[in-house]
């Protein structure tokens, strides 16, 4: 995987810039947003320059020798066992350890961005062992396409030339050879924002080569290497010989070339066929690629009877993404590790097609595990993309580029740190994408407050309802989205086209919320409900916003009591020394151990008369202690949720049936 990238005086990126791409193994998807000219596409183009020898555009006013593109590679050592043996492996391992272990703090003053790289490295070390993974930084610049990253080159060279007893020239040769080995493992498929017909056909051809499964290529190679029995050559013609098909083809072509060369030399002996490559023979790999190219060139992709090249620009881009998805969804091993860059996949597409486009993108990255880099101006994709990283690229006051990084999984929950224009556009595009989604496919939506709400619901709701659960970060945001959705969903002309349904679910907060609209549309396609404990009937209801029942009830309080108590107990023991407040005299374990499970509890409240806790000894202040335990719960919601979901599954709570009924 590409774990990050250094950009030095490349396009808009002046000076040295470092952008980390990897926080965990789930970060396959990297989504870049920002204004035009901010520097989003430059990141994708930099990868194209490095992997595919694309144009190297030096930052205005900078010298070419001061420009470089240097990706950071994190790769399993087992992937390179065939390419690296003996001294090659020793050099690769020592180079990798230099990046894993060396102290670069002396360079922080002159190169502050290097500190970000060290932060990434230290984060990776917590998840990946240097014994199992290589960490490399390889760079290129306009003058020399294979160079060590300039800011660390002297430290690494000095370290390795002494450690391995090699001179500088040998170090550079070994380094460049290793860089070539690493590049050969990857194929970067880049789909720019605008593609000419010629460019489209080139991308289609390269994509098919990169994505064709390894098994098929091996079948072709094995066939070409198959031995056939033929008469001997020259004086040995009376005997038989075994020769591979590939060698026989080379032999016959060479005989023909020799004849032509002899013929042309009879006219002028200075003519000859020069072989520019080290080997004049065509190898199995060359033939395999030619066979695949020719085969697909005779079977160009069509849509509705039209050749793809005759479609609109937006349709062509969609076709490239669809064919890429089709190859990757085949889930067969490819010869190379494929990395994909897509510039503005929504360009020239109707909004009704944008949702499907991003759904494909999400699956390419998160379902099939392909590293993906995407730029966009369509923020409606944000709710569709659940795992990965979001990069807000913008220019600062000094006209340099700043990159803010968020996790896609909690983008809306962290909305307070985003610019107002991003938030506004997010809501508009979000609601547009939801309406578009329920019109185009039988997909149901369930909009909830937080990620743990989503996790609990996914645990209990049946899979066949085809529900996409969207956490947005609070009841006021759920309400706001409901209000945005209400008008188009309630309109008669829209309702006829709606296939899916939308359910908005919130807690009952102490302050409560008001809603000027009805709590459901007339056509029954959209509703909003809040969770509420009915004390008189001792049941949990999902009520309208305007309902008279109004007792504070949050999601974790309507779960199975014993299971919730067990999960809470596990997390308390995992954090036995935790103190809720600095002035606290007891740890959370000391407080919690003074209570036991209340077997008569019907729900999972911690505070109040319905609490799952009862004192195990006299003399405790119940209200004060349960406030402490509840504060601990608030700080460990994610962890408690994970433990709850690990425990043995039981039937769904009764209130879940109300949600199921809405979709049925």
Explain briefly what this protein structure is:
The protein is an alpha/beta fold and 664 residues long. Helices cover 41% and strands 18% of the residues. A hairpin with a 2-residue loop joins strand 10 (302-303) and strand 11 (306-307).
Structure description:
The protein is an alpha/beta fold. Among the domains are: 1-12 and 59-185, no CATH class; 214-294, no CATH class; 420-556, no CATH class; 560-646, no CATH class. The chain has 20 helices and 22 strands. It has a six-stranded mixed beta sheet with strand order 7-12-13-3-14-15, sandwiched between helices. It has a five-stranded antiparallel beta sheet with strand order 2-1-4-5-6. A five-stranded mixed beta sheet has the order 17-16-18-19-20. Helix 6 runs parallel beside helix 10 (313-329), helix 10 (313-329) runs parallel beside helix 11 and helix 16 packs across helix 19. The chain starts with a strand and ends with a helix.
């Amino acid at each position: 995987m590409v774990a990050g990238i250094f950009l030095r005086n490349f396009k808009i990126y002046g000076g040295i810039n470092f952008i980390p791409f990897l926080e965990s193994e789930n970060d396959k998807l990297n989504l870049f947003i920002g204004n035009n000219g901010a520097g989003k596409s430059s990141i994708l183009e930099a990868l194209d320059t490095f992997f595919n020898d694309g144009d190297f555009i030096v930052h205005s006013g900078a010298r070419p020798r001061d420009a470089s593109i240097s990706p950071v590679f994190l790769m399993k050592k087992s992937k390179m066992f065939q390419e690296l043996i003996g001294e090659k492996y020793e050099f690769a391992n020592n180079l990798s350890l230099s990046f894993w272990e060396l102290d670069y703090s002396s360079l922080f003053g002159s190169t502050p961005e290097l500190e970000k790289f060290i932060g990434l490295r230290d984060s990776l070390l917590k998840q990946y062992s240097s014994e199992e993974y290589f960490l490399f930084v390889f760079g290129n610049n306009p003058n020399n396409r294979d160079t060590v990253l300039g800011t660390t080159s002297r430290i690494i060279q000095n370290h390795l030339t002494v450690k391995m007893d090699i001179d500088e020239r040998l170090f550079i040769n070994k380094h460049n050879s290793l860089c070539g080995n690493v590049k050969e493992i990857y194929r970067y498929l880049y789909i720019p924002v605008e593609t000419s017909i010629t460019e489209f056909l080139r991308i289609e051809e390269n994509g098919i080569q990169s994505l064709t499964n390894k098994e098929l290529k091996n079948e072709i190679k094995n066939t070409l290497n198959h031995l056939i029995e033929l008469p001997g050559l020259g004086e040995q013609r009376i005997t038989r010989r075994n020769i591979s098909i590939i060698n026989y083809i080379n032999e016959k072509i060479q005989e023909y070339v020799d004849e032509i060369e002899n013929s042309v030399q009879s006219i002028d002996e200075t003519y000859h066929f020069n072989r520019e490559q080290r080997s004049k023979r065509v190898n199995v790999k060359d033939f395999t690629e030619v066979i695949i190219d020719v085969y697909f060139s005779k079977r160009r992709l069509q849509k509705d009877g039209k050749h793809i090249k005759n479609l609109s620009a937006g349709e062509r881009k969609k076709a490239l993404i669809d064919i890429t998805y089709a190859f990757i969804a085949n889930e067969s091993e490819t010869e190379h590790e494929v990395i994909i860059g897509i510039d503005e996949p929504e360009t020239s597409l109707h909004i009704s097609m944008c949702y499907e486009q991003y759904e494909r993108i999400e699956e390419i990255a998160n379902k099939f595990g392909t590293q993906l880099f995407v730029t966009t101006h369509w923020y409606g994709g944000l709710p569709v993309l659940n795992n990965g990283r979001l990069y807000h690229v913008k220019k600062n006051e000094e006209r340099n580029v700043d990159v803010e990084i968020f996790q896609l999984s909690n983008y809306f929950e962290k909305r307070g740190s985003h610019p107002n224009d991003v938030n506004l556009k997010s809501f508009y595009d979000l609601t547009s994408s939801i309406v578009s989604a329920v019109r185009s496919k039988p997909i149901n939506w369930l909009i909830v407050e937080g990620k743990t709400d989503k996790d609990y619901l996914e645990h209990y709701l049946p899979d066949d309802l085809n529900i996409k659960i969207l956490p947005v970060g609070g009841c006021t945001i759920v309400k706001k989205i409901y209000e945005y959705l209400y008008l188009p969903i309630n309109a008669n002309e829209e309702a006829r086209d709606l296939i899916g349904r939308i359910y908005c679910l919130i807690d009952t907060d102490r302050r409560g919320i008001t809603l000027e609209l009805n709590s459901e549309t007339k056509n029954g396609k959209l509703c909003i409900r809040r969770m509420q404990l009915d004390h008189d009937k001792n049941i949990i209801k999902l009520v309208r916003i305007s309902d008279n029942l109004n007792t504070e009830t949050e999601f974790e309080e309507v779960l199975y009591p014993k299971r919730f108590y067990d999960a809470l107990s596990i997390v308390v023991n995992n954090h036995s020394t935790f103190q809720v407040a600095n002035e606290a005299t007891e740890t959370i374990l000391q407080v919690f151990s003074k209570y036991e499970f209340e077997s008569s509890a019907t729900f999972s409240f911690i505070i109040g008369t319905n609490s799952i806790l009862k004192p195990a000894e006299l003399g405790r202040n119940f209200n004060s202690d349960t406030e402490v335990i509840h504060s601990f719960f608030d700080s460990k919601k994610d962890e408690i949720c994970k433990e709850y979901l690990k425990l043995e599954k039981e039937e769904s709570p009764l209130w879940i049936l109300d949600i199921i009924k809405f979709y049925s």
